[in-house]
Amino acid sequence: MRQNFTQTITIAGTVRAVDEANGSFTVQARSGDQFTAFVGVTTSYQVVTNLDQISRDRVPDPLADPPGSDVQMALRKYIQRDRPVFVAGLYQEDGDRARFEARTVYLLHSAPDRYLFEETHWWLVQVTQMADRILDHLFDERRNYTIDDFAKFYRTNLNILGQPVDDNVQECAVLSRLLYDLSTAFLITGAERYFLAAQAAVKYLREAFRSSSHDGEYCFWAYGRRRHTEGEKGESLFFASQGPDDVGTIPLYEQIYAIAGLTQYYRITLDTEVLEDIRRTIQSFQAFYWDPPSATAKGFAGKGGYYSHLDPVTMRPDTPALGENCRRKNWNSIGDHIPAYLVNLIITLEPLPAGSARPYLAELLKTAIAILEETTTLIVEKFPDPSSKYVNERFHDDWTPDHAYRWQQDRAVVGHNLKIAWNLTRCANYFHMRAARHRAMGHGPQASADDNHAKRLLQVARKLGDDMATVGLDAVRGGIFDCVERHPTGGMPIQFAWGATKDFWQQEQGVLAYLILHGATVGDSSYLQLARECSAFWNLFFLDRERQGYYFRTTENGLPILDGQYGMKSSHAIGYHAFELAYLAHVYTRTFVDAGNGADNGFCLYFRIRPSPSQTTINVLPDFMPPGRLSIERVVVNGIDMTAQLKPANPDDFQISLANLPGAQDGGAIALVVQFDAIAVG
Questions:
Q1: Which of 185, 201, 271, 491 is most deeply buried (CB count within 10 A of its CB)?
Q2: What are phi and psi of 25, to 5 degrees?
Q3: Residues in CB range of 387: below 8 A, 6 or more apart
Q4: 194 near 264, Cβ under 8 Å?
């Protein structure tokens, strides 16, 4: 029994009862616990705001009959039974007495049964606010950008105010993530500023960090550049990583993310030079990191998958100088291929585009699909652990789990489990789509094999999503925890490795995992509810509304942690997750969640292509989608509606011809806008 105990706490849940007479209401959390929250004159009610800080409180005033005090009238106005709410306040215990006083009550929409983050423009607002502020911080009022602007002004590390810090490093993988951000912002808004910035960023990325092999077959990317500051002209190029776990090595995940931005940029432009860099980088993965059975001839294990690190001197993964990174494989070296570049590359290349480059594209697509097939198979076979609800994340090269690696030990990162759930579901959609094509062509055995693989992927994804709902999500406050012990020893279902904190990128994985699981399991509303809870925590507590950004880490109650790297606007730890979240949450919500209330389930994507005989069609599918869920409704080329000429007859066909389009004959860029509509939502 506690005496005089006080704690600040946030409660997330659903209103189950309202007691106007006593100025209180009861909230039931996901855990099943019920909390009676008392309101008073200092209680405020807020409808969630976006980064634009516009008040979206349109809750109608209540009837004044029966009359009541201001406290009672506010309670009557904002609180109704079955309404989802977050309540921040003070919890007190003294002997056998307990009381929870609400200080801030957060609503998710003015209507009790709706969510603002499911409205048509919510995620678009976040993208534009973040992109504009990042460009303002780096380049001030510029609206045209050059390669010299990025050479002079781009910095990986900015403080929370967007100002440069003492470390003036430019990291390649982080610049690539910024390129992803800018390309994505253009893809879903069509804003010229983002395209111009992306165009300059891709030129600087390729000029400043690309390293080609002597024969031109392979491409590696340097870790970063740092400009000299003590009167000496020039800058230093660092080829090997300076990351804490990777110092002196070439980690595969840095090479993977070096082409994340390039792939998204290629997707919106069909730039053939960029695609060639992507191809040569993937060739490097296959030649230096890949461990197929034939690799035993090189002294490798030959057990499949990809090694995590290379020695920059020997260019081998088995050099003792690598230390604990010698002959290792991990989640990043296997799974990160999928979200970083594989999905975007495959949807751009399949079905094969028409044009003179078709044989070249066919070979690259064949390699990409082979990587997808191998990595998804390895994830479902090697990562799940029957003794734990969490996956194994690190391995020796024979796939023996490594539970002694530095900080990781026998610990799980909750976000990695959700990232696997999200990406396996995406890939299940892909294999279901491929099965449908095989059936249409009369290839029954191939269709059955693809369907079976898809079902296996979805089965593992669902188990992880279900497990993380019980041992990864905060069932009282909402949000997703960070690092936990895989085998708790304290008698509790969750044992934290350090603190009960929550990181921004792990919230993203939860939102996307549960949204896409909802889309893949029509009729199961549990995933939609989980997605809404995760989205609510992100939009309430991770948005830095004063500076149009987002916080890296919060406490368990949603308060931002601002010390050290966690107070940075940008750093090597903060990448593209907020833009990836905004793009895919926008697409998934419009596709899988019934807008209702007269709203539509459509959205647009924007492309900027230079005509070339090498590729005369473009694929515009937004993501790996289940068959029969999306259709192209409208196609606009350089401002001219060409839907009648260009809309495919088959609703599952997302390839558009670029031949003989207005403006193509004079060599100018083609501005292509494609409007999509969801066919079936739930």
A1: 185
A2: -145, 160
A3: 487
A4: no
Q: What is the pLDDT of residue 157?
A: 80
Q: Do 282 and 367 contact (CB within 8 A), yes or no? A: yes
Q: Decide if pLDDT at 559 tops 60.
A: yes
Residue 19 in 3-state DSSP?
Answer: strand
Single out the residue of 608, 619, 630 nearest to residue 680, CA to CA: 630
Alpha-carbon torsion 156, 161, 163, 164, what sign?
negative
- The rounded distance, in Å, linking the Cα atoms of 127 and 150 is 21
For residues 195 and 187, what is the distance between their CA atoms, to the nearest angstrom?
A: 9
Distances (CA, A) of 58 to 49, 78, 112, 341, 349: 12, 10, 11, 42, 46
3-state secondary structure 94-144: ECCEEEEEEEEEEECCCCCCCCHHHCCCHHHHHHHHHHHHHHHHHHCCCCC
- If we measure between CA atoms, which residue out of 664, 503, 511, 501 comes closest to residue 575? 503
129-143, 291-305, 573-587: which is most confident: 291-305
Omega of the bond leading into 622 within 30 degrees of 0 (cis) = no
570 has a pLDDT exceeding 70: no
Helix (H, G, I), strand (E, B) or coil at 677: strand
Structure tokens at 66: 């029966």
